[in-house]
Amino acid sequence: MGFVLQANETVIKSQGQDDYGKIVALGNDGKLDSSVIPDSATTQNAFSSVVVNGTTIAAGSQADTLELEAGTNIELTADATNEKVTIAVTGQVASAAQADSATVADSATKLATARTINGVAFDGTADITITAASGSTDTATKLATARTISLTGDATGSATFDGSADASISVDVTSADTATKLETARTINGVSFDGSADIVISQVDGKDIVTADKLSTAQLSIAFRNLKIQVTSNTSATITADAITLIDSSSQATMVTGVDLTLDTSANGANGLDTDSLAASSWYYLYVIYGTSGTACLMSASATTPTLPSGYTYYSRVGAVRTNSSSYLYRMIQYGRSVQYIVDGTILTGSRSIASGSTSGAYVACSVSSLVPPTASKIYYSVQHTSTAGFVILAPNANYGAITSTTNPPPSGANIDNYVHSSGEFLLESTSVYYAANNAGVSAMCRGWEDNL
Fold first, then answer.
1. Which of 162, 218, 287, 448 has the CB geometry, 3.0–4.6 Å to 143, for a possible disulfide?
2. What is the pLDDT of residues 46-69, one digit of tens each?
3. Is 96 helix (H, G, I), strand (E, B) or coil?
């Protein structure tokens, strides 16, 4: 049976033998309050047993005292005023089988489980030091492991680098197929060249270079080496040369080499006549032409602008030929610029005549338009004297003196008895030469010309 203490009451536990286990209550006046504790309860135990986690704690006697002891991290607070005991957890519980909820400790002296920081163990009981060897760092004066820097390809070499000092690489360079710039600039005719840009060579051996793009077609003379032209039949000729310079309509030049061509005047186009057919007693001009179709020759009535076949853009005139009254080619042979008629006994049975007979000693103009082409710069001639008396003279104009003049003699003449033949040449000043003779048995002949190529 239980009991209840009223306010302002005091519980007294009897200490006498007769009063063993009795509890009485005293009122405010110090007298027993029989109404609080009945007589029947004076011999009742305060508890008989207490069970804690399956363990029974039994009261040994009516005088036994149950004592509550705070364990680890447990705090007991007795409240006598409110007649209660508060049980609370304090600090960190080392372990627990299960907890519905827990709070976080504001502070601790040691972590329950040590942690690793950059490889260094830390439980909070002491300071630790993190070193570079323990983990990464933003900067360092030296690499933990030195590295090798290598070059490969056309340039090879290597160097070890740990960051503590600069490193230099000795490079071995192999030849490259191509490059955008020379390592060492070179000088070409006094002009520095490293391959990074085009250059213009304006002088050779201190002399200015005149290029084809600075000249018009009329200004650019043909250049050739070992040029030979020969009329071999009434309608054909051969043209050979080691090299010939050709130009196009824009005055751009090119060179062809190993020229070996045959002209057929019975055909039109490359290696033939540019247009129409051969006319009688006319001058025709020979060309070497070149283009995407290759190298060929061409004959034209024009001394400056032939009609080029398709596939040909470059050309240069290399000579001139003449047809007779039957439209056949006179036989002739040319080396370089010098041209000579060939007396073949068929088309040409003798030298071509300039003039013959007597002029009573006066100079007479004789046209050579049918004997040398308009492009000729010189005439090759011969004079002959087959009489027993008299003279014959040939000159480029009529202002020369007599055959016997010692102050203004003519460039050629003969004044000796019987069968005198003399050959010579002079520059043409016009399309005529001047002939003078005083005997019927004299004459002047044309042997050929020099072409102004």
1. 162
2. 557 777 777 887 777 766 777 778
3. coil
Give the Cα separation of 424 and 411 in Å (integer).
9
Q: What is the pLDDT averaged over residues 249-265?
A: 94
Residue 320 near residue 312 (C-beta atoms within 8 A)? no
Ramachandran assignment for 259, one of left (phi > 0), alpha (psi -120 to 50 degrees), beta (any other): beta
Kindly state the helix (H) or strand (E) to which residue 300 belongs, with its residue range. Answer: strand 294-300
**CATH number for the 351-451 domain, one of 2.60.120, 3.90.1150, 3.40.50, 3.30.1890?**
2.60.120
Give the residue extent of every domain in the chain. 10-52, 224-339, 351-451
Neighbouring-strand partners of residue 225:
243
Distance between alpha carbon 43 and the CA centroid of its chain, in Å? 119
Instruction: Say if residues 323 and 330 touch (Cβ distance below 8 Å).
Output: yes
308 exposed, middle or buried (CB, 10 Å; 0-12, 13-18, 19+)?
A: buried
How many Å apart are CA 323 and CA 234, to the nearest integer? 9
According to DSSP, residue 32 is labeled B
Cβ 355 vs Cβ 370: under 8 Å: no
Asked if pLDDT for residue 449 goes beyond 90, the answer is yes
| Residues 224-339, CATH architecture | Trefoil (2.80)
Q: Report in angstroms the alpha-carbon separations of 59 from 50, 52, 188, 447.
A: 8, 14, 125, 169
Is residue 132 helix, strand or coil? helix
> Do 351-451 and 224-339 have the same topology in CATH?
no
What is the pLDDT at residue 80?
Answer: 82
CB 358 within 8 A of CB 446: no
